[in-house]
């Protein structure tokens, strides 16, 4: 918890520049028996859910959440530059 203030500050900066519904993925203990992945948003992200075993990923403006029915939910960011201004 010594570095909690860094995450709080980072989330504050992100909230000032990104829409509140920007996806955030909190992945804890990846590759272990008690692995847990949770999808949330910048607006709802709680720094108290994060510890040193948690990977925090913040989505881009093009990141989408897709329901997979009984198998849960996926979050993905399309690759490429489609729709971006050409130089």
Walk me through what this model shows.
With 87 residues, the protein is an alpha+beta fold. It has a single domain, classed as Tetrapyrrole methylase, C-terminal domain (Methyltransferase, Cobalt-precorrin-4 Transmethylase, Domain 2), CATH 3.30.950. Helix content is 16%, strand content 29%. The protein is built from one helix and five strands; from the N terminus they run H-E-E-E-E-E. It has one helix spanning 4-17; strands at 23-28, 36-41, 54-58, 64-67, 73-76. Strands 2-1-3 form a three-stranded antiparallel beta sheet, with no helix packed on it. The protein has a two-stranded antiparallel ribbon with strand order 4-5. Strand 4 and strand 5 form a beta hairpin.
- How much of the sequence lies in strands comes to 25-35%
Question: How many domain units?
Answer: 1
- Poorly predicted ranges (pLDDT <50, ≥5 residues)? none
Structural class: alpha+beta
Mean pLDDT: 88
CATH superfamily heading: Tetrapyrrole methylase, C-terminal domain
Distance between the termini: 45 Å
Q: Provide the CATH topology.
A: Methyltransferase, Cobalt-precorrin-4 Transmethylase, Domain 2
């Amino acid at each position: 918890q010594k570095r909690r203030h860094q995450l709080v500050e980072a989330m504050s900066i992100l909230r000032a520049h990104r829409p509140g519904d920007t996806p955030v993925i909190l992945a804890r203990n990846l590759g272990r028996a008690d692995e847990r992945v949770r999808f949330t948003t910048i607006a709802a992200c709680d720094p108290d859910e994060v510890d040193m075993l948690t990977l925090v990923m913040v989505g881009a403006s093009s990141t989408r959440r897709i329901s997979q029915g009984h198998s849960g939910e996926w979050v993905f960011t399309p690759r490429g530059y489609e729709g971006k201004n050409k130089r």
